[in-house]
Structures are given as structure tokens and as C-alpha cells.
Amino acid sequence: MADKRVKKVVLAYSGGLDTSIILKWLQTTYGCEVITFTADLGQGEELEPARKKAELLGIKREHIFVEDLRDEFVRDYVFPMFRANAVYEGQYLLGTSIARPLIAKKQIEIAEKLGADAVAHGATGKGNDQVRFELAYYALKPDVTVIAPWREWDLLSRTKLIEFAEQNQIPIAKDKRGDAPFSVDANLLHSSSEGKVLEDPAEEVPDYVFSRTLSPEEAPDKPTVIRIAFEKGDPVAIDGVKMGPAALLAKLNELGRANGIGRLDLVENRFVGMKSRGMYETPGGTILLPAHRAIESITLDRGVAHLKDELMPKYAELIYNGFWFAPEREMLQMMIDKSQEFVTGEVTLKLYKGGIHIIGRSSPYTLYDQELVTFEEGKVAYDHHDAMGFIKLNALRLRTLAQRKKKLGIK
Amino acid sequence: MADKRVKKVVLAYSGGLDTSIILKWLQTTYGCEVITFTADLGQGEELEPARKKAELLGIKREHIFVEDLRDEFVRDYVFPMFRANAVYEGQYLLGTSIARPLIAKKQIEIAEKLGADAVAHGATGKGNDQVRFELAYYALKPDVTVIAPWREWDLLSRTKLIEFAEQNQIPIAKDKRGDAPFSVDANLLHSSSEGKVLEDPAEEVPDYVFSRTLSPEEAPDKPTVIRIAFEKGDPVAIDGVKMGPAALLAKLNELGRANGIGRLDLVENRFVGMKSRGMYETPGGTILLPAHRAIESITLDRGVAHLKDELMPKYAELIYNGFWFAPEREMLQMMIDKSQEFVTGEVTLKLYKGGIHIIGRSSPYTLYDQELVTFEEGKVAYDHHDAMGFIKLNALRLRTLAQRKKKLGIK
Amino acid sequence: MADKRVKKVVLAYSGGLDTSIILKWLQTTYGCEVITFTADLGQGEELEPARKKAELLGIKREHIFVEDLRDEFVRDYVFPMFRANAVYEGQYLLGTSIARPLIAKKQIEIAEKLGADAVAHGATGKGNDQVRFELAYYALKPDVTVIAPWREWDLLSRTKLIEFAEQNQIPIAKDKRGDAPFSVDANLLHSSSEGKVLEDPAEEVPDYVFSRTLSPEEAPDKPTVIRIAFEKGDPVAIDGVKMGPAALLAKLNELGRANGIGRLDLVENRFVGMKSRGMYETPGGTILLPAHRAIESITLDRGVAHLKDELMPKYAELIYNGFWFAPEREMLQMMIDKSQEFVTGEVTLKLYKGGIHIIGRSSPYTLYDQELVTFEEGKVAYDHHDAMGFIKLNALRLRTLAQRKKKLGIK
Amino acid sequence: MADKRVKKVVLAYSGGLDTSIILKWLQTTYGCEVITFTADLGQGEELEPARKKAELLGIKREHIFVEDLRDEFVRDYVFPMFRANAVYEGQYLLGTSIARPLIAKKQIEIAEKLGADAVAHGATGKGNDQVRFELAYYALKPDVTVIAPWREWDLLSRTKLIEFAEQNQIPIAKDKRGDAPFSVDANLLHSSSEGKVLEDPAEEVPDYVFSRTLSPEEAPDKPTVIRIAFEKGDPVAIDGVKMGPAALLAKLNELGRANGIGRLDLVENRFVGMKSRGMYETPGGTILLPAHRAIESITLDRGVAHLKDELMPKYAELIYNGFWFAPEREMLQMMIDKSQEFVTGEVTLKLYKGGIHIIGRSSPYTLYDQELVTFEEGKVAYDHHDAMGFIKLNALRLRTLAQRKKKLGIK
């Protein structure tokens, strides 16, 4: 358990029942001053109620921080990650993982400003989020005290939590008295659900779990065709309309939602060592990934593209495991960003009932050279006679191996 | 150019106009005996016409080889590759790449049996297939002479080819007189199209190019739900019906075709150095990949899964570049195969208008442990207090770095 | 702390003061039966005194296990690791890391046989060895209880330890009363020293720390020339004399010792998160590594050799971190072992005052082909005209990039 | 063969017999103007004789370029490569590989300035150097014509070369009439020898081949102790004396030479497909590598260090294969350079009869923290109780695997 002699703690506060209980528990257990930090990362909830609730729970006005981080989140976290085409375990778009470092960073900034010695979060003791929050805290403020109530307290059943809330005059919405049928995390990139009704990986995810996408069956019977413009690896416009990072991702989410795009039912390997089953909805991101790959396909050199592909799993793992602020992630990022210098141009996509179909791409920086590739003999660089030498030298070591086998009479 | 003193050459012969011209050209240019090899890899054409045409062109009966390789192709080439979740450049399922080594191997076997000193193929001088054929030839018979007519002859326009065909009494189907609007390769795994009308990557692929799939729009309005059973990483049954490798892949192709699944419009980087745009239809394979990942998701250990993911790009590149018979591909394969020991179980998928949605997976060897993952404190291995130590030691180096920054006054 | 309800514990027992104290502490704290396991891994100490001491401390005869593991250690742990050319952080030959899994495995085997429910080791709470022991325990017996006294007890100073020893009638050698000036680990592969007098990495290691090697200055003024024969990647004979694994490594140690070979002063990164400075003496291993590389240099294909080199850091890290029994280490090992099929032949080395100089290598399976490499034009596979095509296709993407720069006016 | 319509060619000209013959051959074969470029990369030959010889062979004064590139070579090529700890195939310090791109770059600069349309080099058709020169040419000037006389002409024996020289009034030194017993390449980083007397890899390299180092036996009987100071990964001073890049490397060479350091007898895998045996002398570089690793060992974070180690083989392969100007090498370099930000400090080494022994290292930016590592319980970040949680979560997946085995009754 964290050191009891804590004076001021910055709590990542959503305004919901659980973090309100944490708020009170921190006050009563540590006898410390609580500073709340509530961020809008696009989770789709208003922030003002959180402010009011914090006040109600006795937090001083100057200790209540509420911030709209949507643009910062998309510009400095989501887009850099998509430059790398990052997917964890071949499929997961890292929607939860990428939000934690930003929240942690803001908590630490507030702690530094107000001289707080501790930070607290509401992540459980079994998941990845505790790791992501805390690695970020420690990386940014090595002497900080971290309080993780779910690992410390004895409020280990719903009944006990509700009791504690009642004893402490914390308002309880009716539908929060019982256990939730699953738990949710949401931000502008995605919404994830896990636990309870989702726990048997053989059972289909029930319809009521989805919140952010129509099902493919509900989506329109006609495809939607869109054009995404990229500059240096980042999307900057849709159908010719320039947009800021958050607005653009919101627009992609809307397009994805309407077309039944972005549902993912996945069993993944947690950093803390067990497998878990999650259901993710990432409508905009699911469109963005192949679109980004498509613009890269004509603007990136092969050597660069393959190096990126080889390093991607490690990069994605670093983000998943919570090492956003580790120097090796920063090194990889620098390399990835460098590669995006000419990743500029337009991609045309067809969205249809859950599917994304690239149908065209163009760029002022294209490396696709019709003269080279055409079956007519090009005038320039490619002479098909060169292929023979190319093949023969590539074959040389294989022939030497075959010669050895022959000599040894090995089949 | 290959050594003129060639006595017997084994030609990969499709029975079509182009390889018939090659057949004659080999006879007239090299004055050598030609042996034809025609294989059924599931390309969807009958083989007997090829046999007859070879006879017509003067090939001795005992020099005409026709073989059904569908099961061998799927069992020994396609399935091993899918065990690795191989995709080239994030998307291409390697449908053409994986067929070449098998054809080459059979040509070499015939050459060894009949004492032929040369082999020939009909791949052009600009593509990857020449490399794939020839690396395989050399790896299996280091002293073989390779004849690649498209790199050697002067029949460089359609007019010249047709002239040569006419002069040599080669029958010409009416629709073969003009240039084809695109070129096609097909086998049981996929059908690919490239060239001419597909050359501008900004232009949508015209409808008439697709041959193996309905468009998502044409697909049924109701989803199809299927169960695929896996044993040691390979699919063995669909909806409880056991099938051999080729039959199973054919069934998946049928399911994919009907549901508009498996179209891919891609710009890729060729081994010979330029970018090219291709259109691929891989209906069954496109279903198989996520199904395989799904069964792996509950049966593979994280360390193994991540190692596989890190090595996959290299493995896929080896296959794409034609190094199937290289020892490093075999080393990687051995490792991948070892990993599949317990990749056994069932996956349920929903197919709908181009989309594949995993909705359940189960296995007698599952590593997914509901007791571990549940939010209720498990009785067994997981104690959430352990998380603190885990995080603190993972954070230690980051804290040390932060301490250094602090000491140096670096932001 | 481990569960108090432990009945029987298998202790890794050296017979020294520290593990004798642990023995007593286990009896008094847990009230459990203690089984001792003492192994000869070539650390250079006799085992019978350990047996007697265990008896003296009240351990039943049938609970005292003493085993000579030298051959098993070298054959199944050291040699497989050297097949991979494993070095951690570019330099460390993993001498301590590789011994822990074997000791742990034997403890678990005894636990299974005698129905013990716990195991204990004498590694401290700050090092890597606790991790290596315990990961192996858990991997082999998932329900085992692990007792790590150094993390549990309050005997945190030398004074307290000695007091406890005196109170419990544990004999104390005179030179063990004070703190040791550094701590040592030893086995047939190496001897390591760390702590106290070695803690300042700017200070030279004092002469008295070295125990297993002459200094280069003390070594003879004449070089020693030896021939090492390899079979499938493992050394099997020195100067024509066949030897078993342990005898061979002992002989190499002797040769290394005499010639001042194998001292390494290193600052390394521990798995538990901090840097530490160690001094290693690995006389035989330091000879073996370049000798193995030399025999590989003529018998391994380039593709295989480079794949091994790329995977080696990960393999070494797995061993260093204690993941010997993890499935990904086993996968890598299988691949590495496969690569060694033809790594058979002889290497001649000159040993001289700390240096190892390869002066020759030969193999019945050599891939080094003098005809290919000679400047005279070979008759066989290499035609220098092929080089042009090889270069031009390798250059193609670079030329396309340069063309883009030119078009854009970029320097 | 290159296009005959060449007007001006920039030749990499050493002033020796072979490149003088090339010079004449270019004039007579291509009827083109020849521009000579002679560079001092520290090969240890004077440049003025080359200038005079070029004049004698009819080259206009304004077409003779002679340049001292030593500082540029070391600063912009050698040091960046050592930041990566680059070694090819575990041993080779890339002394030849790293020099070619610089020479090629200068030739292209001259070609651009003087409007030359071609470049020529004197590398043979069997080696790596032709690839390195030409990939660099093409990467920097995609439309350049490359002339590689050794692949084109018919002067394939020493006799024919001498005849050609005599017919063209090229002065021939007496000792150049016969075949050289081996061929040499030299620059400030190293000297390499290969061919003829070195071709049997079982035979020891004869003494007369070495030119740049004393043998370990000849070296002094007393060790030399030196201190190398690093700034951001590059050596900047020896024993407190600041030096420019070339001067510093020259000083290290001198120290290495005197102490018998830097000889390497190696069989390596060439990019063009065969194995070759070379003898390398890299006295300064052989000291620099472990010194650089030593300063990194206290200043680099583990995550960064391990990422560097994993990428190093690829980076070294790129340089070896001639891809210095490829964008993926530049991406890797950028990442490596970023990592060196705090690689500043001093390393103390003992040089003795061929051996290099690190005996101390210190840095104002050290991450080595004596309080963390000491066996006394630190006050700060490390609590040894954390180790238990760390181990248990790392063990979790291994325990789950073991549980599965148990359930299945697998040993």
C-alpha cells in the first residue's frame, strides 16, 4: 500500500460513482487533499456534471480541473500511432492504451503545479490500465506516490461499495446499484467493453453491448464513397474539407458508425499475464488504418515500408504495455515520423456494411511509376535482361547448398 | 541467354496460347526436346485440352505430364503459410507466390527422372514470378539450365507473337489475337489480375476484372454463420463436416464468393524493385486468416504469439521473394509448426457482404481462464497485490531516467 | 510472504553459511520439513561437506539430495546456448543465468517425487537470480509455493544473520563473520563477482577478485595453439582427443585460465530494472564462442547465419531474464538446433595472453568454394556479368527515390 | 555493358597501375573525356604522385581532382557507424564497406559540377565493392551511366593487362608485373587483404600479409592504459587531449598497432552470394567498439540498448551490402543518433598484446545508481518486496501453460 503520509493527491476523476467513491475513500483513508482532474477525450460525456459532483463532494473550486483534450489526444497520440500502422496482436487498434498516457501526463502536470505528492486512478488490479497509468506517472515524476484504490481497499463487492457510498452521502444513480453487465472504456478513438456477459469467448457478444456502431445489417444498402487527404502521414481532410484532428476523427467515426464499421471481438494477451476477451468499436480508426496503408503504398520506399512492418509489433506492444513515455518508444516514433515526410496524397474508399474497400490512391510524391511497371519495355531504368543476373546472384547461395546436399547424397 | 546446347527442357505448360508459342519457340530456337508439365492447382481449367494441344504441337506422349496437385498444394504450401498468419506488406495473402515453388519442384522432379538438363517457364521479365520459379529451380537442381523466353526472345509485341503462332500452326482463339486488357494468375487460393486497365492506381478496378467473387453489394442480405474446426493450426472441418485440404479450401472459396469476400486492390513492392498494382480475389483465404488468428488467440501463449508476429513480416517476404526452398524459410517454418501443437478447436464466424466477423471460439486446449480474468478475485494464481510490484520494477528504469533529467534540469 | 501452511520444502542448499541459516529459518518459521538439494555444477567445491552439514542441522538422510550435474549442465544447457552464439548486451556469456534453470528443475523433480509443496532458494531480492529460479519453478510446477527468505525475513544485516546462526547452533567459519568484500557465483562455465568493492564502475577490479584465470600479464610468453572439433554445433574434441561435455569445458577452462583468457568487467542491465557491475571469468566459454562462430562461418548459409544473428539478442535476453522454460525460448532453440545440422569440422586457434586468434577452419560440409571466390573466372555458378543485373535491380528503388527528389527539387 | 555514348566519365583513380589501365581503357573504348578523382581516406599513400600520373596520361589539369577526405570520412561515416556498435556477422568492423559511399558521393558531386554523364570504378566483378559503389552512384544520380571495366573488358589475365599497359605507355613498376599474392584495400579505419595466398581458410595467414599491426607477440610486455572521452557517442579525446575525428582515429590506430590489436581472420558471406576469406587489420576501430559499449553501458537505458542491439545486425548488413544511401539506413541512423544524446563520459582501457580490457567508466549522465544496486536496502525506488509481484505476474502465463500440460497429462 502506498505511503500513508500523502498530502495532496491528483485523482483522475470521471464524475461517475466509482471514482466518486475513490474520492471519498482517499479523503477518509489518507486524510489528504484531493484534486480532481476530468478530461474530455471524446468519451461522449459532458464534463460539467463532473465539476458539480466534485464540488458537492467537498473539493475546492481551485482544485477541480476540467479540460477538453480532444485535439491534443488525436494530434499527439492517435495520429502518431496510426503513422506506424500499429495493431496489437494483429488486430487491436489500441484505443484504450493510447489514452492513458495523456491522462497521466495531465495529472502529473497538475501535481507539479499544485505541489501534490500523489496521484490516483480508478483502474482495477487485474487489467492493463493500472500499468499504463503508473508507468506514465513514474516516467514523468519519479518521486510521485501512486495510489491505486482497487488494489488497496477492502471494498471488494458491489454491496460494500454501495454501502460506502451511502455512508458518505455519495449520490447513487438507480442503475448503478447492481453490478454492471460489462465494463466500458470510451474515448474519441474507440469504445471497449469487457467483463461479465462477455467473459465466455465462445459466446457471441450480445447486441446491447454495442454503443458506437450500427451493425453491418442495419447499415445502408448503398455504399458511401469518401476521399481522405493525408499530409505527412496524417489525415487532414475528408472529401476536400479540411478539418482539425478531433473533428476529422469524429467525422470518420460518424461515417464508420453509419456503415457498420469497426466492431472487433477479440481475445487478447494482457501485459499482466492472462488472456481477456474484449469487444471494441473503433469506427473511424478502422477506416483510417487501411487508408493510411494505401497512401503509404505509393509514397513509401520498399526498404522503409518493410522496416516499419518489422518494427510495428514491438511498437504496438510498447503502447499496449504502457511504455508510451519510454525512450525506446520515442526512438521508434522519431524513425516512423521521419518516414512520413512524403506520405501525402489522397485515398478513395468505399464503405459498405462493415467493409472498407480501397478503390484509388494518388500523390504528388508517388513512387509508383507506370513506365517502370508496364509490360512494354520501359525506356528508363528497367531492362528485363537485368533480371537474369539478379536471380542468378540471389540463387548462388541456394545452389551452393544444393551442391553440398548432392555431394553428401542427401535428399 | 541460356546456353544453346540444351537437350531436353521441361516446360511449365498451361495449354494456352502463350506457353504454346514458348513450346514451339523452344523447339525451333534450341532444337531441343520439350517435355510439358501441366498442373491442376485449382486454377479452374481442365487439363485434358492441354494434353491434346501438346500432342498436336508434336510432343511425345511419354513427354506430356499432367497432374492434379490440388491437395498437395493446399496441404504442403497454403496451410503451412497460413499457420504463420503470413501477409505481405500488411495485406497481400501471397496467393501467386505460394504456387510457384510447387510447380518448379514438379518440373525439377520430371527433369531428374527423364534426364532433362533444362527447365522453362512463361513468366515475364518484369515480375516476381520469374524469380520465384528460378530460385526454386536452382535450389533443387543447382546445375539446371533455366530458359526464360520472355527475357530472351524478340517476340515483344502482340503482333509478333501472333505472327510466330501463325507461322508455326499454333491454333489461336479469336479473343487472343489482341492484347488482353489485363493479365491473370489463378489457383485454388486466389486469382490475381494486373496490368493494362489496372495500371493507374487512382482508378477503380472495373467490374469485369473480378471473376471469383460476387461484389459485396450482390451478396445475400442475410449473414452466413459457419464454424471452422482446426487441428494443429490447420482447418479440418466446416460446420462439422471433415474435408481434405483442397475440398476445404474450395468450400471456403464458395462461401467467400457468395458473401462478397476476398477482394483486395493493392499497390505492392515487387522484389525486382518497382511498385505494381494488382487486384486479388482470395475468398477462402480471407476467411481463413482471421479464423486462424481467432483459434490461436485462445490456444497460443503470449510469448509465442508475439514472437510469431515479429517474425511474420520476414517470413512473408521470403515467400513473396521466392525463397520458399531457402533454409531460413525452413527454419522459420519449423518454429511456426512447433507453435501450432495445441492450436486445435473451433471458431464461429459470420460472413456478410464482404465482412468476416468472429463471434466465438473454443478449444479443449484453451489458455483462456475465466477464473483468472474475472473481476472477482481469483482463488488461484492472480493476486492483484502482485500488480504493484510488477509495475514498480517495470517502472524502475523509467524513474531512473526521469531522475537524470531532473538532475540535469531537462524538460 | 509465502503461505505459512507449507509442509515440505525443497531447498537449494550449498552447504555454506547463508543457506544453512535459511535451512534453520525455514524450520523455525514455517515449521516444515526441509529437503536439501546440493548440486555439483562445477563450482569447484566438494559436495560431501554439504551432506554432513545438512545432517548436522537435523535433515533426515532420505531428505538429503546431492547430485553431480556437470555433464547434464554442459550438454543440455551450456552447449545449446552456445549454438546460438548467445551474448547478453553484446558481451556477457550468461554464465550465471544458464545454471539457474537446471537447479530449479532438479528441485521441482525432487518436490514431485517426495510430495513437497514448496521450494526455496538463497537468492537476494535485488538480483536476477530470484527471477530465474522462480520462473523456472512456476513453469514446471504451477501450484508450487515459493519461499524466498531474503525477501521475507528480517535478518537484514550481517550482525543479525550471525546472531541467528549462533542462536541456532549453526557452525560459522571465521572468515564468514564479517561482510564479504564481494559476492560470488560459480559453475563450470564461469565465476562471477559483484557487490561491495566492485560497486564503483569507474574503479578497476582489484586483483584478488579473480579466481579462475591468470592475468594476461602472468600468462606464458608463447602462444598455445589448439584445435577444437565440432559436431552439429557442439565441441566434441580438443587436439583430436574426444571428450564428454563437462570434461571438454573443463579442459577449455584450463587452457583459458593458463592463457589469461575470459575476464570481463561489465556494467549490465538487470531484468529487475537497475544497472549492476559485475566481473566475470569465463575462460572456456570465451574460447568457445569465436571457435563456434568460425566453424559456422564455413558451414552455415548466409540466410541462416543472418537470421540467427538477428534473433540472438532476443534469445540471450530470454535466458538472462529467466525464461529458459518459456515456449518461445524452446521455439527459438528448435530453430537454432536445426541450423546446426552441418556445423561440423575443425577450428584452429591461437591462445595468447588474453587473446584468442582464429587461424584456420575446415569442414567436410564447407560451403566455402574456392572456385567461386577466386578472382579467376569460375567455370561454375558465378558469371561476373550477372553482377550488373543484380546491382541494377537492387538499385531500382533507390533510383526511383532519387528521381522523386530531383522532380521535387530536393537536395 | 554500359552505353557507348558516354561523353565524360568521373573515375575513382588511385594512381596505381590498375586504375591507370582503366583510365586509358576508358579513353580508347569509350572515346570519352576522363575526369580523375583521387581521395585521401587515410590509406597511407601520397596523393601528388596520382595527380602527376594522371597528367602524364593526358588528363587536363582542371579534370584532376585530389581531395583529403580523412576528417569527413571519420566524422560522417566511421563515427556514425560506431554509434550503432555495428559488426557484420558478429565480427567484421566494416572497414571497406564504409569507405565506398563517400568516394561514390564525391564522384557524383564532381559529375554534377562538370556535367559528366558517367562514373567508373576499379572494383572487380566478384566482390561487394562494385555493389557499394554503384548503389551509391544510382542513389545519388539516378540517370548516371556506370562503367565497371572489370565486368566489361577482356583484359582478364595479368599478361593481358601488362600488354595493354605497355601498348599504352603506362609506366609499370617492377613489382606489378606479376600477380600480387593478395589484394589490399586500406583507409584510415582499416586495411583488408584477400585472395590468392589467403584463399584456403584452413591455412594460417602468412606474417607478411599484415601491414598495420604488430603481432601480439611483438607488442610490448607492459600494458598501455588509456582514457577515451566520448561526447554524444563519439570519441573526442584521448588521455585528456582533444582531437579531431581523423587525428583521434589515427592515434587509436597507433595505440592499437603498437599493442598488437585489431587483426581479424574471417570467412564472411558476400552480398553477391559466395563466401570469402579476408584478413582485416582495424587497430583503432577494435579499441573503439568496446570503449563505446562501455560508455553506453552506464548512460543508455536498457530499453534503448536492447532495441539498438536487435537492430544492429540489420544496420550492419545494410552497410555491408552497400545501402548507405538507402532511406531505411537513414531512418535507423536517425534513431541511433537520437539514442546517443547522453552517451558522454570517459572510459579507461588497458591495451595489452592484442587484448583490450575495460577497467573503468564514468559519466556525468550515468544511470548507474549505487544506491539502487547495493545490497543494502536502498531508501529510494527499489523495494525488494516488489520483486515478488514482478515475478508472479511474469510467471502467470508460464503457470497457465503448465496447468494446461498437467490437465492434458503431458510431460
Automatic annotation (TrEMBL), chains A, B, C, D:
Subcellular location per the Swiss-Prot or TrEMBL entry: Cytoplasm
Keyword hit for S-adenosyl-L-methionine: no
Positions of the Arginosuccinate synthase C-terminal domain: 182-399
UniProt KW keywords: Amino-acid biosynthesis, Arginine biosynthesis, ATP-binding, Cytoplasm, Ligase, Nucleotide-binding
GO MF terms held by the record: argininosuccinate synthase activity
Residue intervals of the Arginosuccinate synthase-like N-terminal domain: 8-171
Keyword ATP-binding: yes
InterPro entries: Arginosuc_syn_C, Arginosuc_syn_N, Arginosuc_synth, Arginosuc_synth_CS, Arginosuc_synth_type_1_subfam, AS_cat/multimer_dom_body, Rossmann-like_a/b/a_fold
Matches recorded under Pfam families: Arginosuc_syn_C, Arginosuc_synth
Catalytic activity from the UniProt record: L-citrulline + L-aspartate + ATP = 2-(N(omega)-L-arginino)succinate + AMP + diphosphate + H(+)
Superkingdom, natural source: Bacteria
UniProt-annotated binding residues for L-aspartate: 124, 128-129
Binding residue positions for L-citrulline: 92, 97, 128, 132, 183, 192, 268, 280
Enzyme Commission code(s) on record: 6.3.4.5
Pathway membership, UniProt: Amino-acid biosynthesis; L-arginine biosynthesis; L-arginine from L-ornithine and carbamoyl phosphate: step 2/3
Positions annotated to bind ATP: 12-20, 39, 122
SUBUNIT field: Homotetramer.
Record-stated family: Belongs to the argininosuccinate synthase family. Type 1 subfamily.
Protein's name in the database: Argininosuccinate synthase
Natural source organism: Hohaiivirga grylli
Encoding gene (name): argG
